[in-house]
Specification:
Layout lengths: L17 E12 L7 E9 L3 E5 L6 H8 L7 E4 L2 E4 L2 E2 L5 H7 L4 E4 L3 H4 L6 H13 L3 H14 L5 H4 L9 H13 L5 E5 L7 H18 L2 E6 L2 H7 L2 E6 L2 E7 H6 L4 H10 L33 H5 L3 H6 L5 E2 L5 E2 L2 H11 L5
Parallel strand pairs: 3-9, 3-10, 7-8, 8-9
Antiparallel strand pairs: 1-2, 1-4, 1-5, 5-6, 10-11, 11-13, 12-13
Helix pairs in contact: 4-5, 4-7, 5-7, 7-8
Protein backbone atom coordinates (compact mmCIF):
# COMPACT_ATOMS: atom_id res chain seq x y z
CA UNK A 1 0.00 0.00 0.00
CA UNK A 2 1.14 3.53 -0.64
CA UNK A 3 1.56 5.82 2.33
CA UNK A 4 -1.37 8.16 1.95
CA UNK A 5 -0.07 10.41 4.72
CA UNK A 6 3.22 10.92 2.88
CA UNK A 7 1.32 12.70 0.12
CA UNK A 8 0.30 16.34 0.32
CA UNK A 9 -2.80 16.37 2.54
CA UNK A 10 -3.46 20.07 2.93
CA UNK A 11 -7.26 19.97 3.01
CA UNK A 12 -8.04 23.57 4.00
CA UNK A 13 -10.23 24.83 6.80
CA UNK A 14 -12.64 21.91 7.11
CA UNK A 15 -10.19 19.93 9.26
CA UNK A 16 -9.18 22.77 11.61
CA UNK A 17 -11.99 22.47 14.15
CA UNK A 18 -12.43 19.09 15.84
CA UNK A 19 -15.75 17.37 15.38
CA UNK A 20 -14.81 15.00 18.23
CA UNK A 21 -12.85 16.07 21.28
CA UNK A 22 -12.11 13.57 24.05
CA UNK A 23 -10.55 14.78 27.31
CA UNK A 24 -9.37 12.63 30.23
CA UNK A 25 -11.49 9.61 29.34
CA UNK A 26 -11.17 7.05 32.13
CA UNK A 27 -12.89 3.66 32.36
CA UNK A 28 -12.96 1.39 35.41
CA UNK A 29 -14.31 -2.15 35.45
CA UNK A 30 -15.93 -3.47 38.60
CA UNK A 31 -13.52 -5.68 40.55
CA UNK A 32 -10.32 -4.21 39.07
CA UNK A 33 -8.12 -1.81 41.04
CA UNK A 34 -6.65 0.03 38.06
CA UNK A 35 -8.57 1.69 35.19
CA UNK A 36 -8.65 0.07 31.76
CA UNK A 37 -8.46 3.57 30.26
CA UNK A 38 -6.54 6.28 32.08
CA UNK A 39 -7.09 9.94 31.12
CA UNK A 40 -7.17 9.39 27.36
CA UNK A 41 -7.37 12.60 25.31
CA UNK A 42 -7.40 13.23 21.55
CA UNK A 43 -9.23 15.13 18.80
CA UNK A 44 -10.67 14.14 15.44
CA UNK A 45 -11.03 17.04 13.03
CA UNK A 46 -13.60 17.36 10.31
CA UNK A 47 -12.66 15.47 7.16
CA UNK A 48 -9.64 13.66 8.60
CA UNK A 49 -8.84 10.08 9.55
CA UNK A 50 -7.31 9.51 12.98
CA UNK A 51 -6.01 6.01 13.74
CA UNK A 52 -6.02 4.59 17.26
CA UNK A 53 -3.15 2.09 17.19
CA UNK A 54 -1.94 -0.50 19.68
CA UNK A 55 -1.85 -4.16 20.64
CA UNK A 56 -4.91 -6.10 21.74
CA UNK A 57 -5.81 -4.95 25.24
CA UNK A 58 -4.38 -1.46 24.81
CA UNK A 59 -7.79 0.17 25.17
CA UNK A 60 -8.63 1.05 21.57
CA UNK A 61 -12.02 -0.65 21.37
CA UNK A 62 -12.93 0.38 24.93
CA UNK A 63 -12.33 3.98 23.83
CA UNK A 64 -14.72 3.55 20.89
CA UNK A 65 -17.39 1.83 22.98
CA UNK A 66 -17.12 4.59 25.59
CA UNK A 67 -17.79 7.28 23.00
CA UNK A 68 -20.77 5.32 21.64
CA UNK A 69 -22.20 4.48 25.10
CA UNK A 70 -21.90 0.78 24.40
CA UNK A 71 -19.81 -0.28 27.40
CA UNK A 72 -21.00 -3.26 29.45
CA UNK A 73 -22.77 -2.58 32.74
CA UNK A 74 -19.64 -3.55 34.71
CA UNK A 75 -17.76 -0.57 33.27
CA UNK A 76 -17.84 2.89 34.81
CA UNK A 77 -16.80 5.82 32.63
CA UNK A 78 -15.76 9.38 33.45
CA UNK A 79 -14.26 12.21 31.39
CA UNK A 80 -13.65 15.93 31.55
CA UNK A 81 -15.42 16.14 28.20
CA UNK A 82 -16.51 14.04 25.24
CA UNK A 83 -17.65 16.65 22.76
CA UNK A 84 -19.21 15.97 19.38
CA UNK A 85 -19.61 19.08 17.24
CA UNK A 86 -19.29 21.21 20.37
CA UNK A 87 -21.91 19.28 22.35
CA UNK A 88 -20.87 17.31 25.44
CA UNK A 89 -22.18 13.79 24.88
CA UNK A 90 -22.12 13.06 28.61
CA UNK A 91 -24.90 15.58 29.16
CA UNK A 92 -27.29 14.03 26.64
CA UNK A 93 -30.22 11.96 27.85
CA UNK A 94 -30.47 8.37 26.67
CA UNK A 95 -33.22 9.37 24.24
CA UNK A 96 -31.21 12.25 22.80
CA UNK A 97 -28.12 10.07 22.43
CA UNK A 98 -30.13 7.36 20.67
CA UNK A 99 -31.16 9.96 18.09
CA UNK A 100 -27.49 10.78 17.53
CA UNK A 101 -26.01 7.26 17.52
CA UNK A 102 -26.40 5.62 14.15
CA UNK A 103 -27.24 8.99 12.62
CA UNK A 104 -24.68 11.82 12.75
CA UNK A 105 -22.40 9.59 14.85
CA UNK A 106 -22.04 6.06 13.49
CA UNK A 107 -19.90 2.97 14.03
CA UNK A 108 -18.58 0.23 11.75
CA UNK A 109 -17.95 -2.92 13.78
CA UNK A 110 -15.51 -5.76 13.24
CA UNK A 111 -16.74 -9.32 12.62
CA UNK A 112 -19.68 -8.34 10.38
CA UNK A 113 -21.07 -11.86 10.14
CA UNK A 114 -21.41 -11.86 13.93
CA UNK A 115 -22.90 -8.36 14.12
CA UNK A 116 -25.45 -8.84 11.33
CA UNK A 117 -28.73 -10.53 12.27
CA UNK A 118 -28.92 -13.84 10.35
CA UNK A 119 -32.73 -13.88 10.65
CA UNK A 120 -33.25 -10.47 9.06
CA UNK A 121 -32.81 -9.58 5.39
CA UNK A 122 -29.92 -7.35 4.39
CA UNK A 123 -32.26 -4.65 3.12
CA UNK A 124 -34.11 -4.44 6.41
CA UNK A 125 -30.89 -4.04 8.40
CA UNK A 126 -29.42 -1.38 6.11
CA UNK A 127 -32.77 0.39 6.01
CA UNK A 128 -33.29 0.57 9.79
CA UNK A 129 -31.14 3.71 10.31
CA UNK A 130 -32.88 5.37 7.35
CA UNK A 131 -36.25 4.70 8.95
CA UNK A 132 -35.28 5.66 12.50
CA UNK A 133 -33.15 8.74 11.83
CA UNK A 134 -34.54 10.07 8.54
CA UNK A 135 -38.11 8.78 8.59
CA UNK A 136 -37.60 7.08 5.21
CA UNK A 137 -39.89 4.07 4.75
CA UNK A 138 -41.61 1.92 2.16
CA UNK A 139 -40.49 2.04 -1.46
CA UNK A 140 -38.24 5.04 -0.90
CA UNK A 141 -36.44 3.21 1.89
CA UNK A 142 -35.86 0.22 -0.37
CA UNK A 143 -34.73 2.46 -3.24
CA UNK A 144 -32.15 4.17 -1.05
CA UNK A 145 -30.96 0.84 0.38
CA UNK A 146 -30.40 -0.53 -3.13
CA UNK A 147 -28.46 2.63 -3.95
CA UNK A 148 -26.32 2.28 -0.83
CA UNK A 149 -25.53 -1.36 -1.55
CA UNK A 150 -24.46 -0.41 -5.05
CA UNK A 151 -22.41 2.49 -3.70
CA UNK A 152 -20.37 0.18 -1.45
CA UNK A 153 -19.64 -2.19 -4.32
CA UNK A 154 -22.13 -5.01 -3.86
CA UNK A 155 -22.99 -6.55 -7.25
CA UNK A 156 -26.64 -6.81 -8.29
CA UNK A 157 -27.82 -4.79 -5.27
CA UNK A 158 -31.51 -5.05 -6.20
CA UNK A 159 -31.28 -8.82 -5.67
CA UNK A 160 -28.92 -8.73 -2.69
CA UNK A 161 -31.32 -6.56 -0.74
CA UNK A 162 -33.41 -9.68 -0.08
CA UNK A 163 -30.46 -11.88 0.95
CA UNK A 164 -29.53 -12.94 4.47
CA UNK A 165 -26.10 -12.31 5.96
CA UNK A 166 -25.18 -16.01 6.05
CA UNK A 167 -25.45 -16.03 2.26
CA UNK A 168 -22.65 -13.44 1.95
CA UNK A 169 -18.87 -13.73 2.01
CA UNK A 170 -16.92 -11.90 4.73
CA UNK A 171 -16.05 -9.08 2.37
CA UNK A 172 -19.64 -8.67 1.19
CA UNK A 173 -20.90 -8.74 4.78
CA UNK A 174 -18.49 -5.95 5.71
CA UNK A 175 -19.75 -3.90 2.76
CA UNK A 176 -23.30 -4.38 4.06
CA UNK A 177 -22.15 -3.18 7.49
CA UNK A 178 -20.59 -0.14 5.87
CA UNK A 179 -23.79 0.61 3.96
CA UNK A 180 -25.75 0.44 7.22
CA UNK A 181 -23.23 2.65 9.03
CA UNK A 182 -23.37 5.26 6.25
CA UNK A 183 -27.09 5.10 5.52
CA UNK A 184 -28.26 7.97 7.75
CA UNK A 185 -25.50 10.34 6.60
CA UNK A 186 -23.06 10.42 9.54
CA UNK A 187 -20.53 13.19 10.10
CA UNK A 188 -18.21 10.95 12.16
CA UNK A 189 -17.64 7.24 11.58
CA UNK A 190 -15.87 5.09 14.15
CA UNK A 191 -14.42 2.07 12.34
CA UNK A 192 -13.35 -0.69 14.74
CA UNK A 193 -10.85 -3.04 13.05
CA UNK A 194 -12.88 -3.02 9.80
CA UNK A 195 -10.48 -5.39 7.98
CA UNK A 196 -9.98 -8.01 10.71
CA UNK A 197 -10.25 -11.65 9.53
CA UNK A 198 -10.55 -10.64 5.86
CA UNK A 199 -8.26 -11.82 3.06
CA UNK A 200 -5.49 -9.39 2.13
CA UNK A 201 -7.06 -8.53 -1.22
CA UNK A 202 -10.43 -7.96 0.43
CA UNK A 203 -8.78 -5.81 3.12
CA UNK A 204 -7.38 -3.55 0.41
CA UNK A 205 -10.79 -3.27 -1.24
CA UNK A 206 -12.49 -2.36 2.04
CA UNK A 207 -9.85 0.27 2.84
CA UNK A 208 -10.18 1.82 -0.60
CA UNK A 209 -13.94 1.86 -0.19
CA UNK A 210 -13.66 3.50 3.24
CA UNK A 211 -11.30 6.14 1.88
CA UNK A 212 -13.55 6.80 -1.13
CA UNK A 213 -16.64 7.16 1.06
CA UNK A 214 -15.03 9.50 3.54
CA UNK A 215 -13.77 11.75 0.73
CA UNK A 216 -17.12 11.68 -1.06
CA UNK A 217 -19.07 12.38 2.13
CA UNK A 218 -16.44 14.62 3.82
CA UNK A 219 -16.49 12.19 6.74
CA UNK A 220 -14.35 12.33 9.83
CA UNK A 221 -13.14 8.81 10.70
CA UNK A 222 -11.78 7.37 13.94
CA UNK A 223 -10.06 4.19 12.75
CA UNK A 224 -9.20 1.53 15.32
CA UNK A 225 -6.52 -0.90 14.22
CA UNK A 226 -3.36 -2.77 15.16
CA UNK A 227 -2.21 -2.92 11.53
CA UNK A 228 0.31 -0.22 10.56
CA UNK A 229 -0.11 -1.04 6.87
CA UNK A 230 -3.74 0.02 7.24
CA UNK A 231 -2.65 3.20 9.02
CA UNK A 232 -0.13 4.17 6.34
CA UNK A 233 -2.75 3.69 3.63
CA UNK A 234 -5.49 5.91 4.99
CA UNK A 235 -4.74 7.83 8.22
CA UNK A 236 -3.83 11.51 8.55
CA UNK A 237 -2.82 11.26 12.20
CA UNK A 238 -1.94 8.46 14.63
CA UNK A 239 -2.73 8.09 18.32
CA UNK A 240 -0.67 5.22 19.78
CA UNK A 241 -2.09 3.53 22.89
CA UNK A 242 -0.42 1.21 25.36
CA UNK A 243 -2.04 -0.27 28.48
CA UNK A 244 -4.84 2.26 28.56
CA UNK A 245 -2.67 5.33 27.97
CA UNK A 246 -1.83 7.48 24.95
CA UNK A 247 1.96 7.20 24.52
CA UNK A 248 2.45 9.02 21.21
CA UNK A 249 0.45 11.02 18.71
CA UNK A 250 1.16 13.04 15.60
CA UNK A 251 0.97 13.20 11.80
CA UNK A 252 1.12 9.73 10.28
CA UNK A 253 4.12 10.44 8.06
CA UNK A 254 6.18 11.76 10.98
CA UNK A 255 5.25 9.02 13.43
CA UNK A 256 5.95 6.21 10.96
CA UNK A 257 9.19 7.70 9.61
CA UNK A 258 10.63 8.89 12.92
CA UNK A 259 8.78 7.38 15.90
CA UNK A 260 9.62 9.01 19.24
CA UNK A 261 8.30 6.45 21.73
CA UNK A 262 10.08 3.08 22.11
CA UNK A 263 6.74 1.27 21.91
CA UNK A 264 5.92 2.89 18.57
CA UNK A 265 9.42 2.01 17.36
CA UNK A 266 8.82 -1.61 18.39
CA UNK A 267 5.44 -1.76 16.65
CA UNK A 268 7.03 -0.58 13.42
CA UNK A 269 9.90 -3.08 13.71
CA UNK A 270 7.42 -5.89 14.27
CA UNK A 271 5.28 -4.82 11.31
CA UNK A 272 8.34 -4.73 9.04
CA UNK A 273 9.41 -8.23 10.15
CA UNK A 274 12.88 -6.98 11.09
CA UNK A 275 15.47 -9.45 12.39
CA UNK A 276 18.12 -9.08 15.09
CA UNK A 277 21.85 -9.83 14.90
CA UNK A 278 21.14 -13.56 15.31
CA UNK A 279 18.67 -13.54 12.43
CA UNK A 280 15.62 -13.86 14.67
CA UNK A 281 12.45 -11.90 14.03
CA UNK A 282 12.20 -8.89 16.32
CA UNK A 283 9.63 -9.20 19.08
CA UNK A 284 8.93 -7.48 22.37
CA UNK A 285 9.70 -9.45 25.54
CA UNK A 286 6.83 -10.71 27.69
CA UNK A 287 3.18 -10.32 26.81
CA UNK A 288 1.18 -7.14 26.47
CA UNK A 289 0.69 -5.36 29.80
CA UNK A 290 -2.84 -4.29 30.70
CA UNK A 291 -3.59 -1.05 32.52
CA UNK A 292 -4.95 -3.03 35.48
CA UNK A 293 -1.51 -4.57 36.12
CA UNK A 294 0.46 -1.36 36.76
CA UNK A 295 0.00 1.38 39.32
CA UNK A 296 3.12 3.56 39.04
CA UNK A 297 5.86 4.36 36.56
CA UNK A 298 5.90 4.13 32.79
CA UNK A 299 3.62 1.31 31.74
CA UNK A 300 5.96 0.19 29.00
CA UNK A 301 9.08 -0.12 31.18
CA UNK A 302 8.92 -3.93 31.73
CA UNK A 303 9.24 -4.44 27.96
CA UNK A 304 11.18 -1.32 26.94
CA UNK A 305 14.57 -2.01 25.30
CA UNK A 306 15.57 1.66 25.50
CA UNK A 307 14.92 1.91 29.24
CA UNK A 308 16.94 -1.20 29.99
CA UNK A 309 19.81 -0.35 27.66
CA UNK A 310 20.35 3.29 28.65
CA UNK A 311 19.97 3.37 32.40
CA UNK A 312 16.49 4.91 32.63
CA UNK A 313 14.98 1.88 34.32
CA UNK A 314 14.84 3.22 37.91
CA UNK A 315 13.07 6.43 36.95
CA UNK A 316 10.81 4.63 34.49
CA UNK A 317 9.71 2.23 37.24
CA UNK A 318 9.01 4.95 39.78
CA UNK A 319 7.56 7.86 37.81
CA UNK A 320 5.37 8.13 34.74
CA UNK A 321 6.33 10.85 32.24
CA UNK A 322 3.76 13.26 30.88
CA UNK A 323 2.67 13.46 27.25
CA UNK A 324 5.15 16.08 26.00
CA UNK A 325 5.27 18.12 22.81
CA UNK A 326 8.12 17.13 20.52
CA UNK A 327 8.98 18.16 16.97
CA UNK A 328 6.74 18.20 13.87
CA UNK A 329 3.50 18.55 15.84
CA UNK A 330 3.99 15.32 17.76
CA UNK A 331 3.61 14.33 21.40
CA UNK A 332 5.21 11.41 23.25
CA UNK A 333 5.13 9.99 26.77
CA UNK A 334 8.75 8.91 27.44
CA UNK A 335 11.62 10.03 29.67
CA UNK A 336 14.07 9.78 26.77
CA UNK A 337 11.93 12.30 24.88
CA UNK A 338 11.78 14.59 27.92
CA UNK A 339 15.57 14.52 28.29
CA UNK A 340 16.16 15.03 24.58
CA UNK A 341 13.86 18.06 24.45
CA UNK A 342 15.48 19.49 27.59
CA UNK A 343 18.92 19.10 26.02
CA UNK A 344 17.76 20.86 22.86
CA UNK A 345 16.22 23.75 24.80
CA UNK A 346 19.47 24.21 26.74
CA UNK A 347 21.51 24.26 23.54
CA UNK A 348 23.23 20.96 24.25
CA UNK A 349 23.57 18.33 21.51
CA UNK A 350 20.47 16.10 21.47
Amino acid sequence: MTCKACESTDRSADIIDPILSVRDLTVHFVGLDQPMLDRVSFDVRRGEVVALVGESGSGKSVTALSIMRLLPSAAKMSASAIEFDGQDLQKLSSTAFDRLRGGRLSMLFQQPQVMLDPTSKVGVQVGEPLLYHNGTHGRENRRQVVGLLGEVGIPDPAARVDCYSFELSGGMAQRVMMAAALSAGPELLIADEPTTALDVTVQTQILRLLDTERRHRRLAVLLITHDLAVVSAIADRIVVMYAGRVVEEGPTSQVLKNPAHPYTQALIRCSLLQVDAQGRLFSLPHGAVHARDLAVGCRFHPRCPVAQAHGYLERCVMEEPGLRDTDFGRKARCWTVVDREAAVSEGAPA
